[in-house]
Amine oxidase (Exophiala spinifera), 811 residues
Amino acid sequence: MRISSPALLAVSGLAAVTSASPFFMKNFATGKKPISMPAQYKHAVLQNNNQNTTGPCYASSTLSTTKSPLDNIFSALSEVEAASVTKFLHEQSDLNLTANVNATSWDNVIVLVELLQPNKSDALPYLNGEGPKPHRYSKATIQFQATLEPYIQEFMVGPLPVSNETTLQPLNYPFNKGVGIQKIHNADPDEYSQFLVNISTSIEDILINMFGGTFTNSPDDVVTIGPSDPLWIDDETGAVTTWNEYSPAPTGLYGTGSLLRSGLAVRTDLTGRDPSKWSVLGWYYIGQFFKTTDDLKAAFNNGTVDYIKPQPDGDWGVTAPSGPVLPQDEIPPPVSVQPAGPRYGVDTEEEYIEWMDYSFFISFTRDTGMRLFDIKYKGERIVYELGMQEAVAHYAGMGPGESAQAFLDSYYGFGPNAFELVKGYDCPAHATMLNTSFYWREARRSHENSICIFEIDAGYPAARHTAVNYVYTTKNVHLVVRSVSTLGNYDYMFEYAFFHDGSIHITVRASGYIAAAFWAANADYGFHIEDTVSGSMHDHVLNYKLDLDIHGTKNSLMKLDVVPTTEVYPWADGQPRNTMKLKRSFIETEDDSKIDWAPNLSTMYAVVNKDTPNKWGEYPGYRISPATASTAHLTIVNSSDLKNSARFAEHHLYAVQQKDTEPRSAYSFNSLDTANPVVDFDKFFDGESLDQEDLVLYFNLGMHHVPDTQDLPNTVFTTAQSTVVISPQNYFLQNPIRETIQQVEINYDLESQAVTGIKKFGSEPAVCTYDMSNTVANLSDYHGGDLVVRKWPYDPSNPFFGTTEIEQIGN
């Protein structure tokens, strides 16, 4: 029997034979792990050519021959491009640049060099075969620090490759502030650390009594101090202040730092660059505010504060197994295998994927990590761009250690924190792994195996029906593209799943350690979950951009309301009947396009094309809808912390006209001055028409998180997840799920209860001997961190110049 279009099999670990069967890191721990340098990074996709029916699976393998029909115009800069742009920038004397390896906080430095994504107006003609390939340009982020008022500015370098035609221009058009410039109010981290050491010395007795030591900014300290984010900037005076909370230092391997709190915090004024003018503005401890350090010390000395010793870390924060082993848990669990190799293709050079009737490009950036472009289904584009824009984690609490925390995580970067995935755990062992890279502070940083692609059976059918004399059921096999970024304490799993029915599921999951609060009768803000630990309530909001193109770029946003009604029908004897009906309308302008999901999910939205009705007169389109109960927007209204920097987080869904001047809803350095962001999403809405225009949707995934004891030691993906689905609405004349042959129809005689026929429609299960060692990844090859290749100074004849080790960065 020949293996033909095999579906994936879930097999028990006990079985040997398969058969047909159902830029700145957050304030948490850092370490380094040197490993040997790989000769080069390569991806491999194995395609099984085995035709045996009784022999072993994977009898022979070859590399996939999938080839992208076009160059990936969204791909990251090559090593040569990044190095040449860096060299070009250093040749511009007016920039007065210093190499990062030699720079101080008073030098101008290159922060980031990456691809400036092509404008859609330039990209579409090329993608449609109607125009030339767009010129490549680099976005260069430069930090100007050789001034009393330091700032970050964005520049545009191109066209590439660097030549006599290459120019340097300020990059302003993507930013509705008018200029791509943001002030830096904390440009002297070393000096500020010393300032905190001096403050800590002034309360040394309190810290020794509370923690057994003081803060000296040494790795051996038993106490740490963490700043609030974002900074507070007074709109009238320009004063810059922040809160810093003391915490016990973690004592072991595990990243428990964010669980440990003391409730003791100091507010400082760090306005300007002269540390001698910085000052202490007050102290907070368990519900009491002290204006001066002397007031705090007096309160501790005379016993007028209710002193509570903070809880150190311990077994309660350890993620290793504890307690009795679960019954039969020592038996290897079911795993997923590919008996005939992958049924998808990957062009690793172009980061182009094909699976069944889908195709798309992958892009990767420092700020937002993985994004997808030019998603086609059955040869027609349905999505031009899909990807996360920004992630908000907004806390609340009785004290400033929680209330002053509102992270805009693209500041820290999802790209730098997308580390290697663990095969067999983060992804099936048979997954195809892709590497990612970005260019940060004149070095190329690469992460092996940080994106995984795999096909898997969902474990439930895509469709089925039982009738009087037959039953049919269809396998629900789908393709998943996944990455994980660890932002300090939280691990975000980003996933795009493609299904045979034409739907795409966009999912984010959260795990890792919660950022806890000190328990001090603050039940209004969280549960008491350990001795002196409270779960700190917070909202996660992750904003996504979705640029749907339905039979072209001229689309409208349809609104479908399922409404209760009382109707009198001619067949009902004149009696009114309480029922429901469908109300159709369109969102006409941007003024009406800030949308919240209806309480009963009784309102549906779809991007449709009015100009291309189907044979029944219905407008084809793609519907967008939440697939989980948790798709949160911010609870806080007009956040005192975020101000104008995260207006995208205030509703569930938005629709605007597509503009090349509005490529992203956020900016990675908005958090440096939240009242005056470089990109203010609210300015996208200026009353323009949404009737048969090129539309862009922005939607939010997320959750309202009130941590409880279930979050110890870690929050779990199984509950902390959020999904939105885009699915065809009258786009096809019937569901394309019928096109898969991975289904079965069983005919039977009702009276005799005998099977009279089995139809497999050309599909056959794989019947071959499977080597279960293929499901076990070699975990000793795990690298985890950055492969750092210095790009300035750069020696083209030695591409690994300046490379010393792989840096492990994480909890």
User: Anything to note?
Assistant: The chain has three domains: 79-185+788-802, 189-302, 344-436+445-739. The chain has a mean pLDDT of 89. The helical segments are 79-90, 120-127, 189-202, 204-211, 293-302, 400-403.
